[in-house]
Predict the 3D structure of the following.
Amino acid sequence: MSKQKNIQSLRGMNDILEKNSELFTYFIDNASRIAKNYGFSYLETPILEETALFKRSVGESSDIVNKEMYQFIDKGENDVCLRPEGTAGVVRSFIQNKFDRAGGTYRWFYYGPMFRYERPQKGRLREFHQFGAEVFGVSSVYEDANIIMMLKDILDFFEIKFKLQLNSLGCTTCMPVYRDNLVKHLTNFREDLCDDCGRRIETNPIRVLDCKNENCQNLLYNAPKITNNLCENCDKDFEKLKEILDFNNIDYEIDSNLVRGLDYYSQTAFEFTSAEIGAQSAIAGGGRYDRLVEFLGGRPTPGIGFAIGIERLLELVKMNESNEDIIYLGALNEESLNTLTKVATDKRTDIKTFIEYTPRSFGKHFKLAQKQSANIVALIGENELRDGTIYTKNLITAEEKTIKLEEF
Ligand code: HAM
């Protein structure tokens, strides 16, 4: 039989293990703790959803739906798709479980894998992970500030330097008027825009605003700005949000070209970026989506949320050196193994314990203990078994002792 090539993970999809998985769980544990302190509860939705859900929420003209979906027909002929983002599934769940009918306020957080068929590069994966939060039932702009503060608290906990960019995308009153004005402006330069933006004039003109093409950006120089064209209500809300952020000493920059890549937003839109991770600098983004619940068939319910890109964030996270004890347990002979399993059961109740089941020499055990980053080595051999004792060495202080098992 000829030797076959080893199977590799798919392009843009990574295993998370060893040091990275330690960082990953460290992040999830602490971000979850902060979210819970803000009154959010955990929810989980399926990774696979009907394709129609994303078409209707993220938007048919968005790059995500247009170019990046992992879409297929399953064995039951259903048109399904690996979720490219979390909000749509959470809103589907909110409606399906009739929370929209019950009324009230709901604050939920989630984390898990998302899938976008993009060209992989630094900070851009095809399978990546998000930590997200969504709030339903609160239209007050104080909630916008609250969610921004929670995100800031998470980033501050991990000592991440960031820039907060803020915009208002208006509402059904002011956005259509603005969009028409923008189209009028852009039509004068149609030939000079990049191919994508040429198309966007018809499909989704406000996406031209955040085109990365330098020429398109230059052509936008004199274009009307949404922040100067908000209706009275949206303008009042935007001013109030800035006031709350100022009051709480949260720095931000207004970026009237920040439109986000998903179609469901209205009013507040924001992005947190880092200058330290290269071109894919957005570490988190979010905004208000007051029409989405209704759009997906629920009772009109305001919503707002954000998602953090975990892989991008972890590039910036340094784990605080842990000084937690790790015990390495080993046997010097086969006969001691049973006793060792009992010792492990006791120790595990409050200390991280690594147990080695192959009897080995003294020296070999110490090498393995180092590999496990243990700071305490505890070994049982023939003598210890006979005397009911255990040999221990503290690798930090170098103190060695043989003590009664009950005292260990
Ligand atoms: P998003 O801006 O598309 O928003 O994604 C949020 C974050 O996910 C980005 O800021 C980025 O850090 C990360 N991300 C996106 N694509 C990739 C990729 N290909 N590779 C690595 N990281 C990536 C949303 O998904 C919205 N659902 C956020 C939201 C929640 N809005 C309201 N509620």
Summary: Residues 85-87, 116, 118, 124-125, 128, 130, 132, 134, 261-262, 282-287, 305-307, 309, 311-312 surround histidyl-adenosine monophosphate (CB under 6 Å). Residues 326-407 form a domain with the Rossmann fold fold (CATH 3.40.50.800). The chain has a mean pLDDT of 95. Residues 18-37 form the longest helix (20 residues).
